Amino acid sequence: MLTSIFKNIAITKNLHFSLIPLLGIMAISLTSCSLDNLVSVDEAEGGLDLDRGSIKSRDGALKLYAGSFYALQQGISQTSKEVALITDEITIKRGISSLSAATDSRTQSIDKYGNQVLTSVGPFQYLQTARVQAAQTRSVLSSLADTSLSYLIAATYAIEGYSTLIMAENYCSGIPVTTFEFEGDLVYTEGKTTSQLMELAVSKFDSSLGIMHDSTRFRDLAKLGKARAFLGMNQLDSAYAASYDIQPGSTFILTYTDNLRPGSAAVQDHFWTSPQPPADLNTMEVMDREGRNGLIWYGAVGATDPRVPIRDNGTPPLNSSLEQRKYINGTVKFPLADWKEASLIAAEYYLSIDDPRWLTVINDLRRTVRLADTTDPGSIQDRVNLLFRERAFWFYLNGVRLGDFRRLVRFYGRNANTIYPIGPYLRNPSGPVSYGEAFVFSPPTTELDLNFKYQGCEHGNP
Amino acid sequence: MVAETNMTKTNTDIFRQVHLSNAACFVAAMMLTASTVSAQFYPTSSLSSDSGLSADTVDRKNTKSEQKADSQKGGAVKIKIQDSTVRFILQSLAKLTDVSLVFNSADPRLSKRASIDVNGVSLMEAVQISLRGTGLSARRSPDGRAVLIGNSDRPGDADGRAGKGSISGVVLDSVTGEGLDGVSVSVVGFPVVSVTYANGSFSIDSVPVGRRQLIFKKIGYRNTERTVNIEYGVNRFPNIRLWKTTTALSEVVTTATGQQRRLEVANDIVKIDADKIRERAPVRSIVDIIEAAQVPGVIVTRGSGDPGAATKIRIRGLGSISQSNDPVLIVDGIWVDASVRSPSKLDDIDPATIQSIEIVRGPSAATLYGQDAANGVIVVTTKKGGTGNTRVSVSHNRDWGQTYGRLPLSYRGIGHNPITGIQHSSCSVANVIQYICVQDSVIITDPNNQLLLREGVENSSKTTLQLEGGRGNILYALTGTYGTTIGVKKMAPIDRVRLRLLGHEIRNTFSRPTALDRSSINSNLTISPKDQLNVALVLSGTRTLLKNNSYNLGQITTLSPLDTIAFLGNRTNHFSTAESPTENTSVSLSSSLTWGVSRFLVTGNAGLDHVNSDASLYTSNTNCYLGRSCADTVGSRTQQNTQTTNYSFRFNVSNQLSLGKFDRFLKIRPTIGGDLRRTIKSNLRVQVDDIPPGSRSIQTGTYVASSYAKTPNATAGWYLNSSIAVFNRVYFDIGLRQDIGSAITSSSGAKYPKIGGSWLVSDEGFWPQNRFVDLLRVRAALGYSAVQPDVQDVYGRYRSSYAFIDGKFVPAAVFSSGGNPGLLPERAGEFEIGADADLAGDRIRIGFTYAHSENTNTLVQRSLASSAGTTAIRKENIGRIRNQNIEMTSEIRALETDNVRMAFNYNFAMNRNMVVSLGDRGLPYPVNAMGRVAQGYPLASIWVRKVLAYHDENGDGLLSLDEVVLTDSAHYVGTAQPRLTSSFGINATLFKRISFDSRFAYQSNYVKQYTHNSGYGSTDVNAPLGEQAIYVVSQLTGRRPVTDLRWTSASIGYHVPGYLIDRLRMSSLVVSLQGSNLGLWTKYDGRDPSVNGSIMTSEISTDNGFLTPRPRLFVLDFKASFK
Questions:
Q1: If we measure between CA atoms, which residue out of B775, B665, B726 comes closest to residue B198?
Q2: How would DSSP label each residue in B570-608?
Q3: With a threshold of 0.90, does the pTM exceed it?
Q4: Cα(B618)–Cα(B635) distance, rounded to whole angstroms?
Q5: Which helix (DSSP H) or strand (DSSP E) does residue A216 occupy?
Q6: Between chains, do B660 and A15 touch, taking CB under 8 Å as contact?
Q7: For every one of its 462 residues, what pLDDT tens digit does chain A have, with 9 covering 90 and above?
Q8: Does A327 reach chain B within 8 Å, measured CB to CB?
Q9: Choosing among A126, A141, A186, which should be mutated to test the B contact, i.e. which has the most B CBs within 10 A?
Q10: Nearest C-alpha of chain A: how many angstroms from B861?
Q11: Short-list A462, A95, A40, CA closest to A271
Q12: Among candidate residues B385, B788, B516, B50, the one with its CA nearest the CA of residue A39
């Protein structure tokens, strides 16, 4: 039936005349030009977002690297503030936000089912951004024909390592490390335990160290990160081995905030800056009396220890208002990786093998700031106390202390109540309450809602 | 070769007399029959022959080749033989047509001398003519393969056959006199239908003798009946003339592949005649035309009744959650931005220049229009010039508008601090509960804290000058329009007094703070350099200035409004102003080409549409005390420039295939086409402070912040389409489109097929020939279209920032939004089925459509978990939306006499919208306070917590939120989109001079989000608890179910008689009084349910009680055309 129809059509001369040009036009349309080129655009231009074309260039790769560095800096500085609050390095004076109060009073926690409502999204988010963007930056760097930036690949691994390490040190056991490739897809992951995160960090630092660096600065950054990760796994020998050769003076610097960046209003960070006119802007002060185990810095050392610069601003009513003077504005540098930490890791390692050099290392460090030598307290426990007290002074407000608290509980057998602040929390506006039992930070509850592979932390213990 | 010609003729004859129960079987049978007949024709050599064949007896001109050519041309037999034997004539016919003529060559009757001279008749007719007077007759063999010649049939023949005759004739157009092709000719009571040839001729064989009634039908022509006495043998019929009629199915509509008769399109495309709308309703914009047309399934929403308010058009419900639901707008072949904004870009199209607007509803109709067309397409065609001398027409109208209802009363408590005694100018019930203040008095204010409510008369005027004409190959039209509208908002008299007391000038910008000026010019040039070639250029430009100002005379802090004297003496108040003009400048250039080459038709469009919008907000921010001029104040200004440019290019090449012998009943028109569109949107925003007194310039201020973003986008697509017509009563449309875009590469490019059919059932032979149903067509279409994701949705975005590295700030890019490279366009598939009928002599027209559409791969915004590195929204193709629509149109021309014509129309539409799925987790997410997108509910659904009880537990006479018991969770209460809409209209013309028209519209089954936060119950501590309860929970429960009936328009027009026109040297003068929005009947306690305060951002319709309702308009319109 149809054959007959087609046969009749085929013998019609006009039909040939009709179809041939049509087919020709079709063929030309489909083959002579690439249709994708017709519709190719840079998806955005202008000051708010960067267009995709420029991102994939050398300049774009540099910006991406700077962006991941920025996110790490934000993540670490914000985490350090949280750490300072929960470990009594600093406390709320006024202008209390519920989130800061919850951290300060150790009531910010989360159970396995995500019932906790107070979680600080910012630092966690920035640490995750740093990790994800570092990997994206590496993807762009690898795609460039220009190899002059290859050294930055090592830096991206280090950034990934540090962001992972900071989460491992301070967050509960069970943190997802989702991947989001550059121009690629999103793959959510389940939570990783603290040990798994530490191992992951070590692998990132190893990757960084496996690449030629332009300077020892990057190598030392990765070495110290790796050493810290081993420390978090109580592998003191490996930690020492990773960092023993870091030379004195080697420091990798961050700043606390970027709020003085070009084009931005110079908003004062009330958390960190010392009082600027008007003086009552500052909302945080150095811990002095609160909590049975609170660090009585001022009472202990007054303003004499150069490692913990404090000024009594003398503004009651709550207390004498002790202002920290270590980080007086957003651009004051603080070390992300510092040779002093390598020294203290060495000291801890020596202490673990009962090598007397542990005290030598501590005193050598103290002499650098013209502090008198300290003496061996005798017992193992007191030696550990001394070592960790030295770490507390050296790394004041550097976001290390919560990790040290946890290590004391996990690896040195200390009771949490002897480490964490406990007792009445005086800053509550409705009257004193007791400190809570939060030992670590938790991911924001939205992670439970949105990451379908995430089931919450394995535990929130130290 | 001769046989080939005749085979066509023979097959066609057979085909033309087939009747079947449905179109599909019909086509199948057609093909089957064709193959059977062509294979089994008797060879010519088997015919009986007559040695008397002589060249001398055959007309020399009728060589075989000529005969064949003639046959091919006319599709019928042409033969001229004089004074020869019947036998010879039959033999000649056999040879000529290559059809077996079976007869006894020895029959002496065949020796009779005869002549034949016919042209364009069928073989049977030619044979019958040859046999006249011989006593012989011809009939087809039972198997239809041959013509048998023998004794005449008579009643009671051995085979029981009654006497039969054949009918032939020609059908002509009554005006042009040209033969009409494709006219259906049927004999009442017999299942035979014939179709006329290109020259209008037809023939029907084997019609039983006697009085028979013939019906002639053709779309676009009035059905015509003739009674004829059929006699044995051949019956020639006098020429039949058909008169054109106005059936809607005959009109030409624009499709993506070109223009087609509406009958041939399987979808219900509505064509709006803009001039007709202008005659009966006030029209200020294209949206007014669309709304006044009352097209079923089309809902027009306005942001408010203020001039220049944003408007929104939704066609057949909502299909997209996160993407635009705006239809595509194509003006003279080019894409025009149709996004919702204020003032609307749509309104920049001068309605005076519009010839027609076509509403292409649903994805199945919009398939070939490509990406973003799933929400429907609005095709606008502007006026072209007409041949002849330049004609000038002037139209001027004045509008007066007034709102109905009054602004809801707004209350403000005056009080003092219980401890310090400091006055509180705003002391609500909630403030009292919180011990912030003690209430002293309550005053009634408007939302701007002014004393009195004020709305005046809207004033509008518009003048249009049109020139059009044409000479030779050039047609031109030029239209210029200027109009201005002053909104209803008005400064309260008491404020005038206060300002005077404060020593301020009262400028118009504040006494009438809302106004719109619009001027536009449109030129249309059409050139036809040669036959079949047509080039058109359309250039238009529009400038729109929307003024939307406000002022604040300061809050009244101490006194009751009744204490007027003291109030007027309150000189501590300041006078601050906010001036927010928006100026749109639109430029549009469209070029189109139509070129016919042989059987090809090439059409193309190229052009651009650009709109530049400058919006600014200037705020004076220093008090103007008595004696101090506001010119002394320091101001701040935010300036925003947005630009949208669309470049579009489209081409079509179509070809009317020549199918040889199938041409008579089968027409195929394949089309190949493609289009390309590039859109660039940019947005620049600058904010400055400290603008010195006397200046408004942004350059004189202190820079605060700025931002700039530019977003290009491009889409391209190509398509193949084939329109097939079978017997001029069954039409198929089959097409396939492939799209790519900036967000969709060719590797993931989507393909959108379509198939549709339209069947003129009433032209089939089996259709009972009754006089009530003049025309019935059924149609069905299935097609797919899309809404594409945004480019930004596909690729990750990086925010510009700085990082402090190595002691210095360096530029940085921070991961801010994760893209989804796997995104696909939202795919909308629609099945539409419907029917159209003309009844009772075209007095009644009805149309019915059911459309079922499913939007799959609907883009749903999902927040990302923090571990992804960004918590920005990321879109995923996980949703599914369903729309079910029922639409009905009807028109009854009840009275049609020379002096009185009266018609009624009623349209109806119902939409059922539902979110079928939101992906694997199906989590609902909020749109605003009460709006929610939830699985199993309409897309624009409203959810509230219900008040279970309230009790003043502490006995303080005040109701706080914790004293009201609400349900734990929100419950679905309805959808913001009307589910049911209908309209009714009456139109009458008296004595051909006076016209009258009135229309009503009804909407029901929808819910508005209504919140009024400064009401009596929320402010006055003495308000009853029930009143307080309303306001305490108003943010949670403020919704209103709506049903409304609106008197949308009425008009009365007068066409000035000819003798007066002549004296005025005019060709026409029409004076009309029109009104719109004349009445509203609803239980809705707001002022106007049709306005939506959230029109720019949401499909959820909101009303805070203070939106300006659409004004009731009266328009006096003069339209004069000059010779």
A1: B665
A2: -TT---EEEE--EEEEEEEEEEEEEEEETTEEEEEEEEE
A3: no
A4: 7
A5: helix A216-232
A6: yes
A7: 434 433 443 433 444 444 445 555 554 454 445 566 667 665 544 444 566 667 888 999 999 999 999 999 889 988 998 899 899 888 887 555 667 778 888 887 544 444 444 456 688 999 999 999 999 999 999 999 887 888 889 999 999 999 999 999 999 999 999 999 988 889 999 999 999 999 999 999 999 999 866 667 788 999 999 999 999 999 999 999 999 999 898 888 776 665 555 555 444 555 555 444 444 445 677 877 777 777 777 766 666 788 988 877 665 444 456 778 788 766 677 788 899 999 999 999 999 999 999 999 999 999 999 999 999 999 999 999 999 999 999 999 899 999 999 999 999 999 999 999 988 887 776 667 788 888 999 888 788 878 888 888 888 888
A8: no
A9: A186
A10: 12
A11: A95
A12: B788
Smallest Cβ–Cβ distance between B866 and the set A55, A125, A136 belongs to A125
Chain B within 8 Å of A189 (Cβ-Cβ)?
A: yes
The rounded distance, in Å, linking the Cα atoms of B902 and B994 is 12
* Closest CA of chain B from A185, distance in Å: 6
CA distance B75 to B8: 8
Is residue B679 within 8 Å of residue B645, measured between CB atoms? yes
Smallest CA–CA distance, residue A318 to chain B, in Å, is 25
Taking the C-alpha atoms of residue A195 and residue B769, their distance in angstroms, rounded to an integer, is 88
Q: Do the beta carbons of residue B575 and residue B550 sit within 8 Å?
A: no
Contact across the interface for A44 and B711, Cβ inside 8 Å = yes
ipTM of this model? 0.86
Distance (Å) of CA B365 to CA B268, B360, B735: 8, 6, 11
User: Contact B257/B365 with Cβ under 8 angstroms?
Assistant: no
**End-to-end C-alpha distance for chain B, whole angstroms:** 60
In this structure, are residues B713 and B324 in contact, taking their beta carbons and an 8 Å threshold? no
Question: B370: distance to nearest CA of chain A, Å?
Answer: 14
Q: Given 3-state DSSP classes, what are the helix, strand and coil percentages for chain A, each rounded to the nearest 5?
A: 50, 10, 40
Pair B183, B216: CB distance under 8 Å? yes
Count of H-run helices and E-run strands, chain A: 18, 13
Nearest 5 degrees, angle CA A93-CA A98-CA A101? 45
**Amino acid found at B1040:** R
A449: chain B residues, CB-CB within 8 Å: 865
Backbone angles phi, psi at B831, to 5 degrees: -115, 125
Q: Round to whole Å and give the CA distance between B647 and B589.
A: 10
